[in-house]
Specification:
3-stranded parallel sheet; 237 residues; 6-stranded mixed sheet; 7 helices; Ribosomal Protein L25, Chain P; 9 strands; Alpha/beta knot; alpha/beta
């Protein structure tokens, strides 16, 4: 999986359509100037998370403001047509929810729906929506996507499924049927964040390894190490 730090930033549609690039949002400025250390002359792809994008070249980078010139008109990228599943998940404890959000965002799913389970000991505690927004944006930046994952919250399971009458439902059940096993022994090799070296790729090709992927985006190593083995164990490829 490609772990290259992508020079991308989520901005508002109004900012994308302005005559020149000007970023004043402290969070975005801090990410670009300190986290990925962009400098004057660097190029960056800006997108609004709803399918609009535009490339720019930076002219001024400071701790308070980033300015640049656009290199193209606003592009519109449509989400790939597919029958996307809707994950309906009981809220988990702590940052386990963050990881679910991250993986589903990297897989390119349009929407994720959480609900409060009856056995949720936390009650109706407030949710870290700002942190989740940052998780979604980071996952979208890293995976090369253009559409941000939408997160919905429902008060209970009944409310979470009441508008999904036309859906085929599946659910986890310890007493349910086991999935069909693979017909041969299988190894899933996951590379580091920086990707496999050319020598490593040669070694994999020599043993007849097949490349696989899920969704249309790029999974980070921590996500791929969980998702790909799980998908293969269920017979998906």
């Amino acid at each position: 999986m490609d772990g290259e730090v992508r020079r991308r930033c989520v901005l508002s549609r109004a900012t994308l359509e302005a005559p020149g690039l000007q970023i004043d949002d402290p969070e975005a400025v801090n990410y670009l100037s300190r986290a990925i250390r962009l400098r004057s002359g660097d190029r960056i792809e800006c997108f609004d998370g709803q399918g609009a994008a535009r490339e720019a070249q930076l002219q001024k980078v400071s701790n308070r403001q980033i300015c640049g010139q656009w290199l193209e008109q606003v592009r519109t990228i449509h989400r790939p047509r597919a029958c996307y599943p809707l994950p309906v998940l009981a809220l988990l404890k702590g940052k386990d929810n963050d990881e679910a959000i991250r993986v589903h965002s990297e897989l390119g799913l349009p929407k994720l729906r959480f609900f409060y389970a009856e056995r949720d000991a936390r009650g109706k505690a407030s949710l870290p929506l700002d942190r989740w927004r940052r998780v979604v944006q980071e996952a979208c930046r890293q995976s090369g996507g253009y559409h941000l994952l939408q997160i919905e919250i429902r008060s209970d399971l009944a409310e979470a499924i009441e508008d999904l009458r036309d859906h085929q439902f599946y659910f986890g059940d310890a007493h349910g049927e086991r999935p069909n096993p693979l017909d041969q022994q299988t190894a899933v090799v996951i590379g580091p964040e920086g990707g496999f070296s050319s020598n490593e790729l040669d070694q994999l090709h020599r043993v007849g390894a097949r490349g696989i992927r899920l969704g249309w985006g790029t999974l980070r190593a921590r996500s791929a190490s969980v998702v790909l083995p799980a998908a293969l164990s269920l017979g998906a490829s």
